[in-house]
Automatic annotation (TrEMBL), chains A, B:
Enzymatic class: transferase
Subunit structure: Heterodimer of component I and II.
Record-linked InterPro entries: GerC3_HepT, Isoprenoid_synthase_dom_sf, Polyprenyl_synt, Polyprenyl_synt_CS
Gene: hepT
Originating organism: Bacillus timonensis
Catalytic activity, EC: 2.5.1.30
Protein's name according to its UniProt entry: Heptaprenyl diphosphate synthase component 2
Cited Pfam families: polyprenyl_synt
Coiled coil: none
Required co-factors: Mg(2+)
Gene Ontology MF terms: heptaprenyl diphosphate synthase activity; metal ion binding
């Protein structure tokens, strides 16, 4: 089943959110088109707004209130993508940046700041202090995750805990907050919105682990970039950590550096793909999904709960 | 009179704020030391916290409440300095960035994000929705100012309005917000905190214009960088705009580009310094200060009002 068909009953509300997203970045600043591009590129999926709306369905759902939470979380996600781009751009042009390339990066940095600022301006339409508190904490953690991701590049002595903490901050927390803050804005009782947070956290962890697996198993066409890009860029993901339990693979992996070429790394990517590492990573993703199903069982039965169940199932099976 | 002596009665409270500032960026993340450096470098002045405290003195002053506003505004200021550094670093190393230099810039970008996030986490300790709303709007405007500053570099066809809008966003708004939000946190009546905002805005405009004048009239030692650095980096400030009314100066100014060397620009800096432009810029700064004095006259008489008067007077006379 296609992901978007699972929540087609949210389509009217998602269309409202889409319009507000467009309006929020249009403004009168031409430089923000770069940021706008990002919003359009990731268009359609809108995972975070979907989670916000589904969280809201557990309580007093009012689209005119909840849309502000959905737009805010999608904008925060977008801002982080724009800043990630600054990092990636710099790498792609390593050693030979053009003035124009650097100019764009500077603009991108401030554009990211601007989008983050805009998201805050939208959320302040809602006077709920808990909302602001949880959101501010999430932003701090996401930023720490970004710093860690750079710090941990090419650090082959990192352990599983290090990886899990990083993807928690990088991905899972924003999904968890989407589920929770949608519920908070709908005045859902504390014990319910805390469980929705946990559901989002587990699903977010499985989502990122699956992403990291697909970077090895996907085709270049499916991924829109060469398979193995993560390792090539020094990002040590779960399959790599598991593969390093094999002494021969470990020997090859620790050789990877900023000077490694795509051609040089290809045999290693194939070896990791054919090792047990992928299966082990899938097993951990499945354990997180099991936890997500379990916590859903403790939530009030409703249509949104069924959808959350299906979304979790989809994430476990997606191929790209 | 030394600036800090004007508000020595705030010293105990400023010491509390200093401690909270240190604690807020220490954390357990070594990469944040770079950001910490910035806080220490600008140490002592703490203009924004001073304005916050003075704003608060017009109402129900509680240091345990108001310190959060002061720390938040100083952190937002710091975050913007850290991001400005990314821009400046890149320029200094134009054409030949080292891996290390780029690495630092990436970390600096995320460190700025982190500091901004931390500031939000602190302000959410206060449940006042107006505070959050005004603050979010200020952040958006400051970001727009940063984008504009890059966009407007080397754009010699810009007019006075363009410059004024830019320094409003870049400097004056954060000072205006400091005065106002300190007052809002102390439950000052609307008509009073709006006037405090205006006072801060006028003083902030005069402050930045003075800064832009000093970039021409200060010695290299006073400035800690070569005089004329602004124009050298393509920043068109008020003295430059006034100097361009002189056709011969204009001819030279529009030749300035990214390829202009320090030696080449020196005679031009001297010519601008000796022209009427400096006096004209001082006159505009004084007009803003007059407006600041006038609005102070409409505020309730109190010790804080006297201090705000003295601070404005100091800003008009400072030599570096």
């Amino acid at each position: 089943m296609k992901l978007s068909l699972m929540y087609s009953y949210l389509n009217t509300d998602l269309a409202i959110i889409e319009k507000e997203l467009e309006a929020s970045i249009k403004g009168n600043h031409p430089v923000l088109q770069q940021a706008g591009l990002h919003l359009l590129q990731s268009g359609g999926k809108r995972l975070r707004p979907v989670f916000v709306l589904l969280g809201g369905k557990f309580g007093d759902y009012d689209i005119n209130v909840i849309k502000n939470v959905a737009v805010t979380l999608e904008l925060i996600h977008t801002a982080s993508l724009v800043h990630d781009d600054v990092i990636d751009d710099a790498d792609l042009r390593r050693g030979k940046p053009t003035i124009k390339a650097k100019w764009d990066n500077k603009i991108a940095m401030y554009a990211g700041d601007y989008i983050l600022g805009s998201s805050l301006e939208i959320i302040t339409k809602l006077p709920n202090p808990l909302l602001h508190k949880l959101l501010a904490h999430t932003i701090v953690e996401v930023c720490l995750g970004e710093i860690e991701q750079i710090k941990d590049k090419y650090r082959f002595d990192q352990n599983l805990r290090c990886y899990l903490r990083r993807i928690k901050r990088k991905t899972a927390l924003l999904i968890a907050s989407s589920c929770q803050l949608g519920a908070v804005a709908a005045d859902v009782p504390t014990e319910v919105h805390k469980k929705l947070f946990l559901y989002g956290y587990y699903v977010g962890m499985a989502f990122q682990i699956t992403d990291d697996i697909l970077d090895f198993t996907g085709t270049d066409e499916q991924l829109g970039k060469p398979a193995g890009s993560d390792l090539m860029q020094g990002n040590i993901t779960l399959p790599v950590l598991y593969a390093m339990k094999n002494e021969s693979l470990k020997q090859q992996i620790v050789q990877v550096s900023e000077r490694t070429t795509a051609a040089e790394i290809k045999p290693l990517i194939t070896a990791i793909k054919q090792s047990d590492a992928i299966k082990q990573a899938e097993a951990l993703s499945n354990r997180y999904l099991e936890k997500a199903y379990k916590i859903l069982g403790e939530l009030p039965a409703c249509r949104a709960r069924n959808t959350l169940y299906n979304v979790a199932k989809y994430i476990g099976k997606r191929k790209f």
